[in-house]
Amino acid sequence: MKEITINPVTRIEGHAKVRINLDDNDNVESAHFQVVELRGFEKFLIGSAVEEAPRITPRICGICPTSHHIAAAKACDQIFGAEPTDTGKKLRELMMLGQFIHSHSLHFFMLASPDFLIGHDAPAEERNIVGLVKKSPDLAKKAISARKFGQRLTEALGGKPIHPTTCIPGGISNSLTEQKRAELLEMARPTLDIAREGWSVARGIMNNTDTDFGAVETAFMGIEKNGRFSVYDGDVSILSKENVKTGSFSGVEYPDYLNEYSEDWSYLKFTRLYNGEYYRVGPLARLNIAEEMGTPEADSGLDEYRETFGRFTQATLAYNPARYLEFLSCCERAVSLLADPSICGTDTRTPAEGVVNERGVGIIEAPRGTLIHDYSVDENGFITKCNLIVATCQNNYGMDRGVEDVAGKVVENGNLSESAANKIEMVIRAYDPCISCATHAIGKMPLNIEFCRNRNII
């Protein structure tokens, strides 16, 4: 059997490859998105004090550490029975907005847009952030500025721009000073202007999106709060592939809806619904689920988005404009929160007295999709069991099937051109996978150990 590999997949976080198997007639027989990284956070968290989880889990990833930080803190809230104060919740939400602004601007402008603004068939040495800087230096500078604001938000609220430490059981350990609020607001307003201007770029990409590219039909899952897009709290809703709401949960009952499993070609877990239906998460899912974004500029953009794709869409490349609408909405929401002086209140936490529940589940929306942290503890608060379900695992099926769909269309006579290979990568890139977050394996691993004897060694 002939095999074609794309190794590595470029412009994603982490290491992955694509393996394409051909039959005797050089047609695509199968294709898989393959990940061979392995990390063990779910195991070495066992035995740790659960209140340390919000400080340990951000080390899973340098791209989305805030998401793990806050999901872990929400699980701790439940274990200690300490509901955060309103100010504490707002500060946590603002930190999450910083994560979205930083991550979405990075992906949309620097990882995804070169395929559309420079061209998916342009030479690889030009189809990247360097090529974008050469072609649109003003756009690249504005993207960097927006990303910087997201990092400054994280630094101000989380103590550090990467791997924040301030979220604790019952809230957050520090308050926002009036001076810092004013400084951040001064940065937030021009960032919102950048987001407004950039919608024309996103609109152009949206209006030229191939809706059959990387085709896969799935259900969708994501958080909504009273019908609105939400990054911090709300209920997790499930839509079937026929756009029918089939379930909703908010915490410890998630195993009644989700089933994790593994395949022998990847260390990356897969997740499906307990009725056997496959599903996806992230920007595409959230916009399918939410009735509105909840901010005026993004709601206007959402109307345009739905004029193009409809109220409900399966289009894989729609992830890109959906991600931009979330970026725009998060910029608007950040300005709104920072413009309110009450966010500087000092009532940032509810004291945690001791273990109240021996299990806690924290669920938030990370930039890539729904993130679940599930901890069980003993009576002293030490972790006895840990499970992390991250967005990239939940999107694994969609990426895998999308890769096979495009591979079947672009492999010609058993050959894969560089431009065709990039088309396959574009499917993966649309999901903005975070491999470091996702490589937490279950079941039997496809690991072979070979012992070799070198007879030349003295």
From TrEMBL:
Mg(2+) binds at residues 42, 388, 440. Its cofactor is Ni(2+); Fe cation. Pfam families: NiFeSe_Hases (PF00374). Fe cation binds at residues 64, 437. Ni(2+) binds at residues 61, 64, 434. Keywords: Iron, Magnesium, Metal-binding, Nickel, Oxidoreductase. It comes from the Archaea. GO terms for molecular function: ferredoxin hydrogenase activity; nickel cation binding. Belongs to the [NiFe]/[NiFeSe] hydrogenase large subunit family. PANTHER family: COENZYME F420 HYDROGENASE, SUBUNIT ALPHA, F420-NON-REDUCING HYDROGENASE VHU SUBUNIT A. This is Ni/Fe hydrogenase subunit alpha. The lineage of its organism: Archaea, Methanobacteriati, Methanobacteriota, Stenosarchaea group, Methanomicrobia.
